[in-house]
Each structure stands twice: as C-alpha cells, then as structure tokens.
C-alpha cells in the first residue's frame, strides 16, 4: 500500500493512518507537528457536528497524546509539506489557510469522505481486498504486537482508553502466529 500510494495526494495521510483516526488526521495542524524532533501532538479532531465540520477535542482523554514519529512518517510529512506548498501556490488568491496538514485543495477543512475516494484505487492496486481505511489502525496494532511491543505501549500510541480495546478489537492473530504458538506449546509438552 505504501509503495502504490507514493504519488497519491493522500500518501502521507495513508502512512499516518497506521496509527491515527481519520478525524485526528483531518484535524491535525502543522503547529501540532515537529518534524525536527519527530513528534506529533493529537489535540483536536475534525468531526461533523449538526451537519457542519467542526474541530473538537479528541474522542477520549487518552486520545490526546504525543506520538514519536518513525522516519517513514517524518519523510512522508516533509514531502507532503513541499507538495502542499506547490498546491497552495497554484491557488494562492483563493487559499483559505487553516494551518491544516491535510486541508482541502483550497486550504479549508477537508470533507471526511475525500480520502476514501482515492483509497479505493490505492487499495485495489495494492491488492488489499475490501479493507477499510480505518482497518489500517488495526493493522498497526497487530504489527506492533507482532514486533513484541508491550500492549500498554501500543495502547498509548493508538490512543485507546482501555487496553482491552487494543487487545480484542485490533489484535488479530494470523494463522501462522497461531501455528507457531501451538508448535511452541506442543514442543514444551514433549
């Protein structure tokens, strides 16, 4: 998916959706991102409230968090900033700056369904079947757990209020993982 989306306008959004909710991504401002230190602050989300797009506090207290960014995220955001500067220059007189990392083509808050429109083509080209954009958060949790990251750290990265949510909703064991676990159990019983 990351290779396929490299030239897509939403590539950096797809990179970051491995840990952030859609509303968190669309509410993210450049002032919340420090590319030099490689961190990102989740302090607001973009939600539809009463038919209007509004910036609101994150879903839960634990959703407000600081996320250290791996190099792949810093690189994607750096390139994204460069591309948005060009996009902004092309429509300068009509640009309505809100300081958003992922604005509309005019600088205003983006309609939440817009990333989904290009996601279908990216998903198909990457052979991901019917996976939803939000499912990438689940993928992030599963990958972190597979890498041996303790569940409480994964919960903090993802911003879940309860570790049970992290473990039951997002941690999907593959057939190979189950096979390895039961093989280890079988070996220990012999």
From TrEMBL:
Keywords: DNA recombination
Organism phylogeny: Bacteria, Bacillati, Actinomycetota, Actinomycetes, Streptosporangiales
Keyword Transmembrane helix: no
Regions that span the bilayer: none
UniProt keyword annotation of ATP-binding present: no
InterPro entries: DNA_brk_join_enz, Integrase-like_cat_sf, Integrase_catalytic, Tyrosine_recombinase_XerCD
Gene3D superfamilies cross-referenced by the UniProt entry: Intergrase catalytic core (1.10.443.10)
Protein name: Site-specific integrase
Domain Tyr recombinase span(s) in chain numbering: 1-183
């Amino acid at each position: 998916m990351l290779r396929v989306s490299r030239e897509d306008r939403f590539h950096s959004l797809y990179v970051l959706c491995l840990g952030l909710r859609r509303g968190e991504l669309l509410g993210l401002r450049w002032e919340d991102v420090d590319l030099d230190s490689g961190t990102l602050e989740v302090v607001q989300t973009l939600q539809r409230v009463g038919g209007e797009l509004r910036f609101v506090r994150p879903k839960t207290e634990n959703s407000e968090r600081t996320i250290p960014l791996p190099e792949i995220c810093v690189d994607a955001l750096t390139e994204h900033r460069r591309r948005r500067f060009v996009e902004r220059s092309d429509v300068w007189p009509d640009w309505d700056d809100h300081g958003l990392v992922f604005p509309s083509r005019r600088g205003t808050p983006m309609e939440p369904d817009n990333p989904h429109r290009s996601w279908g083509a990216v998903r198909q080209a990457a052979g991901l079947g019917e996976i939803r954009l939000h499912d990438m958060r689940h993928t992030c949790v599963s990958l972190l757990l597979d890498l041996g990251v303790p569940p409480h750290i994964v919960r903090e990265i993802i911003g879940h209020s309860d570790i049970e949510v992290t473990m039951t909703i997002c941690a999907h064991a593959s057939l190979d993982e189950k096979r390895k676990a039961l093989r280890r159990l079988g070996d220990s019983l012999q």
